[in-house]
Amino acid sequence: MKPFTFSLLCICFFSSGFAQQQIGASGSVDATNAIYFESLDGTASSNGGTGYSFSLAYFYSINPNWKFQSGLTYRNAKHTISPNLLPGEIAPERDYSRNLISVPVVFRRYLGESSTRFFIDIGASFDFENDAPNDLDDNSGVSILFSPGLEQKLNDSFALNLAPQLQIYSLVPFQKDHHHRRLIAAGIEFSLLYSLH
Questions:
Q1: Fewest CB within a 10 Å sphere: which of 54, 89, 116, 123?
Q2: Residue 183 maps to which CATH number?
Q3: Buried b (16+ CB within 10 A) or exposed e, 94-117
C-alpha cells in the first residue's frame, strides 16, 4: 500500500490547482542488467536480459513548457548471474526475474509548441521490490530516470508519446550494502495521454 498511498498524495496535491491536467497509460520493452558501480575481483558476473513495464500516470501542467508527472509503474526485469569459476569448475547459471512497483516524481520540459514536439523527462522514482531474491541485493530505494522523447498531438483530447528511457535503480538504497548490485533498464516506452477538460 505504500506506493499507492504516496502516489495518491502527489496527485491530490497537484490536482488542486491549475486545470490543465492529463492522465496516461504506457508500456515499455527494455534491456535490463544488474551492475556494480565499482570493480570487484572474484564476483559473479551478470548477463543482460529483457524486461517490460506498465504505467498509469498523471500529468499536471505547470506552464506551457513544463509538466509534473507521477503515478504508478510496474516493472519486470530479467537477468542471468554467471558464477566466477576456477578452471575445471562447473556451476549452472542462475536466471532471475525481478518485480518492482514504483512511484515516479518526474518533470517534463517541452521543446517547441507545435502539435509534434520533443520533450525531456528527468526525475526520480521511489521503488519497492517485491520478493527480492535472497542471494541478490534488494533494489528498493530511490532511482533516477532520464527520457528524451517525441509527442504527437492527435486532437484536443489525445496525444501519443514515444521515448527511449534509461533508469538506474537503488541509486539511494533503502537498505545499504557495502557493494550494492543495482538494476539498470534501458528501453522504449509508448504512451497514450488523455487531457482532462
A1: 89
A2: 2.40.160.20
A3: eebebebbbbbbbebebeeeeeeb
